[in-house]
Every structure is written in C-alpha cells, then in structure tokens.
Write a structure and sequence with these properties.
By secondary structure, the protein is mainly α. The chain has one domain: MetI-like fold. It has 14 helices and no strands. Helix 3 packs across helix 6, helix 3 packs across helix 11 and helix 6 packs across helix 10. The longest helix is centred in the N-terminal third of the chain and has 37 residues.
C-alpha cells in the first residue's frame, strides 16, 4: 500500500471525525449531560451504545467528547509547531551564541523525564483545558525544533540564500522569504506528528483524572468507566471499547497522514518499482550487465 493511499485513508478518516465533532448537536441523539436511560443499560435501538452509571447516553457522550479531544490535539500541535519552527529557524540561521543558548534549552527539555513531569505539571497548574494544552505543548516542541534546525542549516548554505545575503537582505527577510517556504513541508509533517502525540497524551492525562472535570473527552470517558468499575462487568463492551477505538482510529489516521507527508518530503521513502511488479530475484543478469 503506497504512502499516497495511506494518506488519503488517514485524511478521510480525520475528516469524518472532524465532521462529527462540528455537527455534534445534530448527530448526537441525546443531550450527553441528561439522564435518558437506566444506569448501565445495555445497548438497544434507543441507545446504540447503552448508558453509563448515571443513565447518560454513551453514544452522545462519545460524539461530543470528540470536540475536546480533537481541539486539544490540533491546538497543542499548532502551539508546539510554532515554538519548534521559531526556535529551529532562529537557531539554524543565526548560529553562534543564539544557536548555543537555544539548543541547550532544547537539550534540557529533551532530557527531562517526560511522563512524570507531565503528570506533575498537569496536577500543579490545575485541571482545565488551557493548562492541559500548555503542558503538552511545552513538552513536545523540542523535537520539532531540532529537526527543523537541521533543515535550516542545509537551506542556509544554498545558492539563492547566499545571493540574497550578499545583496544586503536583512536576516528577517531572508528567513521569511527564502528559508521558511523551503521548510514548510517538514513543518507540516511535524504538525501532524505533534497532533498525533497530543491526542494520546490528552487521553492519558484524562484517564489518570488530570483532565478538565467540566468537559468530557475520550480519555475522560475511560476515566469514569474505570472509576465506576465498568471493567468488572459487561459494560466495558459499550463503555470502554468505543472511546478506545476512537482514539486508536484517530492516532492511526494521523500516522498514515504523517507517513504520506514524509514520503513527499523524502524521495528515498518512495517505491521505485511499479505497483504489483516485485523484483525478480531469479532472473539472471544478461551479458551486458555482467560486463558493467
């Protein structure tokens, strides 16, 4: 399966989830905050995914929860990408003392114990969506910054950049006009990867009870299911499995999309063989090939 096909599959899947999130009030059969069924009611025609411990429709919860999960993923990825591009661009282009200071900061962030620090920061700053975005964004911007810096170092030495600098162009003009467009494909790939990681981290923090208590995400649904002993009953089939599958589907979709973007950036990842024509290992080289 080619990267382009995987990218289309990922894009279509993400589009479906985004559409469901935007149209949640129209698609959800019930208000997810109201009791509309008996507690732990099994799936039925009226409630396709059953009800939770207080009688709230789980399908409606799942549709509305996609809003918070996807919002955190995209906003956090945007924050991390902006920080990474800014640091990588300044560090790779200006070099010298600026490069040394910024890269030491990147090294510090990368060397910190990731999971314990994330839990401590989330608990210390408070349980709300804004703090959650800031915590995750602060912890994942360093790796994109290092990758973008390496690309900037290569572009910085290209002929058109050197010509612009020789003609007296300012640093800001060169970075915005000549370097930033050249690193846009890599920036897009880093955004997709950051969104993938952000959704998983949000689900992890929410499952640990460190999410926003006033809003539900897929991770928060799993937290309440675990807290109300859904794993010990048959309720896990309709209360635990659907949000877990949603998280897995979105993460895999981002992975497919990221692979397609990276394949366009790096031609070495592209297959040089026509589809359906594997190399013939049994073919013997002809005389001309043997003489080469």
């Amino acid at each position: 399966m080619t990267g382009a096909l995987l990218g289309r599959i990922g894009a279509v899947t993400l589009l479906l989830f985004l559409t469901a999130a935007v149209l949640a009030p129209l698609l959800a059969p019930y208000d997810p905050t109201l009791r509309t069924a008996e507690p732990f009611e099994a799936p039925s025609l009226a409630h396709p995914l059953g009800a939770n411990d207080v009688g709230q429709d789980i399908l409606s919860e799942l549709i509305f929860a996609s809003r918070l999960s996807l919002t955190v993923g995209f906003v956090t990825a945007g924050l991390a990408t902006v920080l990474g591009v800014t640091v990588g661009l300044l560090s790779g282009y200006l070099r010298g003392a600026v490069d040394g200071v910024l890269m030491r900061g990147v090294d510090v962030v990368l060397s910190l114990p990731f999971l314990p620090l994330m839990i401590v920061l989330a608990a210390f700053l408070g349980q709300n969506t804004t703090n959650l975005i800031l915590v995750i964004g602060f912890l994942i911007w360093a790796r994109p910054a290092r990758l973008i810096r390496s690309q900037v170092l290569s572009v910085r030495e290209s002929g058109h950049v050197q010509a612009a600098r020789a003609m007296g162009a300012t640093h800001g003009y060169v970075m915005l006009r000549h370097i930033l467009p050249r690193i846009t494909p890599l920036t897009a790939a880093q955004f997709v990867r950051a969104a993938n990681v952000s959704i998983m981290l949000e689900a992890s923090l929410a499952f640990l009870g460190l999410g926003d208590p006033f809003q539900k995400s897929w991770g928060a649904i799993l937290f309440y299911a675990n807290a109300r002993s859904a794993f010990l009953t048959d309720a896990w089939l309709w209360w635990v499995l659907p949000p877990g599958l949603c998280i897995a589907a979105v993460v895999v979709s981002f992975a497919f999309l990221g692979y397609a973007v990276e394949e366009r950036i790096d031609p070495r990842l592209r297959s040089t063989l026509p589809a359906g024509k594997p190399p013939d290992a049994t073919r013997k080289p002809d005389r001309e090939e043997a003489l080469r």
